[in-house]
Specification:
The complex is a heterotrimer of chains A (119), B (150) and C (708). Chain A is α/β, with parallel strands linked by helices. Helix content of chain A is 47%, strand content 24%. Chain A has one domain: Response regulator (Rossmann fold), CATH 3.40.50.2300. In chain A, helix 3 links the parallel strand 3 and strand 4. Chain A is globular and about 30 Å long. Chain A starts with a strand and ends with a helix. Chain B has one domain: CheC-like (Chemotaxis protein chec), CATH 3.40.1550. With 708 residues, chain C is an alpha+beta fold. Chain C has five domains: 137 residues, Four Helix Bundle (Hemerythrin (Met), subunit A) (Up-down Bundle), CATH 1.20.120; 102 residues; 111 residues, Beta-Lactamase; 133 residues, Up-down Bundle (Four Helix Bundle (Hemerythrin (Met), subunit A)), CATH 1.20.120; 183 residues, Heat Shock Protein 90 (2-Layer Sandwich). In chain C, helix 12 crosses helix 16, helix 18 packs antiparallel against helix 23 and helix 20 crosses helix 22. Classes of the chains: A alpha/beta (119), B alpha+beta (150), C alpha+beta (708).
Amino acid sequence: MKTLIVDDSIIMRTALEKFGSELGLTIVGKAANGKQGVEMFKEHLPDLVTLDITMPEMNGLQVLEEILKIKPEAKVLVITAITEKSVAIEALKKGAKGFLNKPFNEDSVKNAIREVLGK
Amino acid sequence: MKETELKHFVDSTLQYFQHATGSPATLGVPYVKKNDDDLYCDFTGIIGISGSRRGAIYVCVPLPMLQELAKIVTGLNEVPADAVRDMVGELANTIAGNATRSFERNFQISVPIIFEGKPKSVSIQLETPVFVLPSQWKGYQFSVIVGISD
Amino acid sequence: MTEEIHITQRSRIAAELDFYEQLKAALVAHGEWKFRLAKGIDVGCLGLEPEKIRVDNQCVFGQWLYSDKTQPYRNNSHYEKVRQLHAEFHKEAANVVVLCHEGHTHEAKRALDSRYADISKRLAEAIDTWLKDITKKGIQNQQEEQQSTSNLEISRYARYGLCIGILSGFGFVFLSLFLIFWQNSWDVNFQNLIQAHVLNWAQWVVDCAPFVLGSVGYFLGRYFGINKTESIRLEKVVKQRTAELLANQKEMKLIRDNLNEGVFFLDRERKIGSQFSPVLKEIFEQTELSGFTLLEVFRGRIDETTAQELAGYLDLMFDKTHSETMLSSLNPFNPLVLPEVAGLDEKILRVLFKRIINENGSIEGLLGIASDITKQVKAEREAERQRELAKRQMELIGQILETGPQMLLLFRQQTDSALKQVATLLEQASEEKEMGILIDEIYRHIHTIKGSASLLKLKDIAHAAHVYEEELTKLKQKKDISTLDFLPLSIKQGNLMKQIEEFEKLIERIQQFQISEKQSAREEDLLLELVRRAVEAAAQETNKELLFTASGFEVVQIPTHYFEPLRAILIQFVRNSAAHGIETPEEREAQQKPRQGQITLTVDALENDYRLVYSDDGRGIDPEKVKTRAVERNLLTAEDAQKLTTQEIYKLLFKPGFSTAQETNMTAGRGVGLDIVLEEVKKLGGKLTLRSTVGKGSEFIITLPKAA
């Protein structure tokens, strides 16, 4: 399963990469901002994307729209703060398959990924 | 004590005089006291509070005002002394009752206790901070004093 | 005979039905008692009389239990068990009330949860078993009864058939006789008749008709009877089924009506369905629910964001592509805090939603389960508050121990007198008096408390005073102040007083543990120590580096009554120096000054006065800036400002409402500092002079008379 991580925090990227790999995902790229995320998406056309919402350059919701235009069947897991319920709702309405609340831990990340992949 | 709660006491007091006598009462500048500060009036009607909150409500009224109020309320020209005395209890009871109607259910008010001169009772104590609501009615000065725990 | 059997059977069934209903009612009524007691405990079980509760024949069920109606069941094992348990139940309930009246609320609650709950459960079980037994027997009886009824019915129809058959048979016989007589012109004698019979075989057949037809009638009647009873039986079965269904519906209704949770259905339009548990009205505080959306139900009580979140969440819930578990954390109604509004207390709700899938696999609607969790949440909050309080008290104790007793005493005296003066000011206030002046005066006193409290690092008191000050500022800016506007102020003042009281209680408790140690420190040392602390505190708060030095105090003895006012004055100077005078370390280095700002205090004795000189080496006071500020503050006009001498300009600094600080914080204050100082000095009969050089620093000279 080709996976792209889009997150402006290096800690988050590292954590997501680790947990993702442990679940058997193939991390094809790690983008540090929205713009880079879209570029990497075009290049790799991944099946799964973890997408942070609050990012510089281009926010997560914009990225979500862009990448789903390119590949509508891509599964997107958005990452939001607990306080941003409305953002999560918007993302799901825009076609994201799941969301993950920050702060997260190993279990919540893995569960969210499993959920999105329908396992 | 929340501001809305204190406001209920003001409203209840002003309403009482408007409804019972037709002459409005006005609120003076409220202030706050400690519970051990002195308090003196001719007559004081005291309502104790029990249940989830503790404390008391004092209504402190000068005798001439009480006499006049009793006359209006009873419609008599001469009100017997004990009825005048009773008036302060009635006043305290109505004000406290109306003001605390919107308080939570587990909130009980006692029957009024009447004191002449300085209240000596220690059983019904005001809780600090004590809010004094000085008021005027027909040129008389009286106070509603509220000291209820949170 | 048969009628009689029917009647007794029916009345027995009626009696059993009554029995059944009574037992069922008892089950519900006694369940409700737990609720009543639980509620009652909270209010000291007012209105509950243990003597009345203790006896077991006063409640409706008890009266019934001991009435004639139960006579036939007295030997029944169920009866005896239920009666005993019921009596025990009443005893236990009474015990709970007694505990509660004695004030043992905790024990009462415990008893309610243990012994009472146990007996209540056993009683319910016993009644339930009895109920089941009755139902079982009832069905058996009914079956027996049906059987006997149908047999009776069948034999009745058979008898009818027999009679009709025999009668019609005789009819044939008579008809044949009639025909014979008629044929022979009525000339027939008995002998002929016999003869005709013997000879005429056909006549034999006719004579047999009553028997044949009778038998045929019998069987026909029986057959008819069987059919008839069958249809009656079927009808009965239908009736019974209907009754059962009705009973089921009734039970469903009972369940629904007695739920503590508000259960409702949301259709695809997000509207509440017609069936919901009645408690929902209470939970949602609305009487009209059916056909309304949740947004309509909560209009005005939830904010725009929550409303949007709810709409979005419900949309997603109707979208099968998202899993319910994933969505659960987006539910804005778990929990939902409804803030206090006029006439309504704060309420905390939890509404959980579950998809209802129809046979086609699509989402038919949502099942909503609403509960009022205000009590639990408030209890949790209270526990949290207690923990927080305990933590703060520990901090406070640490602070008190560090501060030392003399300083605390000073603080308490000062705070007490300040608050008393505020109360007096307000008490004497009348609407004629200029409110602005009154507020200024109160402000000064509160500011003093705030200053000392932040100096002693009594954070909570300082904060409460700060909040009070802010309220005063708000009030001052208001036009046409009415007495009602003082209510919020009173609340803030109340909070401040509570903080102070809490602090004092704590001190008292500590003092009880403290060994009274001889106070060896000199008062002078204490004054200087206080100023030093003020310097430290101000340095920390303004991120500046300050150095305090004092001289002359070893030689000059200032009368102790000057200490308290001097303390207040000097602290104000320190706060002014830190906020306005002393530059940041970087600025100072750039100006070739030492990083540390120098604050010095010297005292010497003149002929008639003591002279205290307080100085700092900060940026000094720029008369031009003061002028500009004063004009901005409408303290004077621009033309007047031009005419002022430097000393006159400095005087502006001592006017109420003047401040050169750019921002308000705990240290800088809000331009009250220097007017307090001037007032204090004047009260002491002294003089205050200010000298300042731009870029070099400022100097305050206080002279105080030797003779008091």
